[in-house]
Amino acid sequence: DDPEKLTTFQARIDSGEKIEPKDWMPEGYRKTLIRQIGQHAHSEIVGQLPEGNWITRAPTLERKAILLAKVQDEAGHGLYLYGAAETLGVSRDELTEMLLDGRMKYSSIFNYPTLTWADMGAVGLLVDGAAIMNQVPLQRTSYGPYSRAMIRICKEESFHQRQGYHIMMKMAQGTTAQKKMAQDALNRFWYPSLMMFGPSDKDSVHSAQSMAWKIKMNTNDELRQKFVDQTVPQAEFLGLTVPDKTLRWNEDKGGYDFAEPDWSEFFDVIKGNGPCNTERLAARNKAWDDGAWVRDGLMAHAAKKRAAKLA
Ligand code: 3HC
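# 3-hydroxybutanoyl-coenzyme A complex -> structure
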């Protein structure tokens, strides 16, 4: 890239200007955005599977309607994000293909199974809680379309987290069996939720450059710490125990000291060896194949309408 242009570009970033699709940008900036926004979008789409598993099994009609609304929101979040990625010159089909053949990732958290109804509470409380922690700062990201997508998405995320918190409260304050289920869900989702923020800063290959370009507003460890500090009091209020014996409040730091997740498990999961990776990608591949006739029909219909207009 032309050094002159690079300097001007970095000055724009540093002054907090938004970069828009038609502006000049370094190839690395474009590539990093396609990677991050594309994987963010994939996460929204794949993230519907663990929760979709419980729509037909929800304990009441009201819970079914709430879960249905949330899963539908996630599809919309995926749409906003694929739309933002397309402004960078990559098509949604290309991004989908790279998800389906494993060249692109989605959030590690969605490779864990949702075994009981209480998991719908833990996912809302922890996974959407973590997503809010990560997405709120991204509203100020330097790339215009991504920032605007984040603003819209964040408006819906708090409902996602609240409904999860409410499920956990209902069960934690319910029968002994219900409280046990809520505790079991917290035990299984705690460490995978910490992994959502990415590897520790010393192992984060992209953070430095992504922060210089304001594609990332905080480091992985900073957001993880904020998440723990916010979530531990919520678990305590629910009368549940965070599955970390080393957890303790550190007055000097003004935050909790806590045990790190098992990073070898994390790298294993993002390599494709998590509990549900095969199942998730198989589900997405099947949906893509089963939907081919719909895409073909729409394209044929559009071509017919175009031809009619020309005739
Ligand atoms: N799952 C899968 N891959 C992950 C990951 C995770 N939790 N955390 C990190 N990685 C990958 C990175 O993608 C990168 O691999 P790549 O080069 O092949 O892309 C590698 O691990 C190194 O990690 P870095 O920290 O260096 O990478 P990033 O700077 O990209 O940071 C991130 C990772 C914090 C996830 C960042 O990409 C980000 O903030 N993305 C936007 C937010 C996002 O995608 N959130 C995912 C959840 S969305 C969601 O939860 C939906 C909600 O509605 C439930």
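# post-check
The pocket of 3-hydroxybutanoyl-coenzyme A is lined by residues 35-36, 39-40, 43-44, 47, 74, 77, 105, 107-108, 127-128, 131, 134, 195-199, 204-207, 210, 216, 220, 270 (CB under 6 Å).
The radius of gyration is 21 Å.
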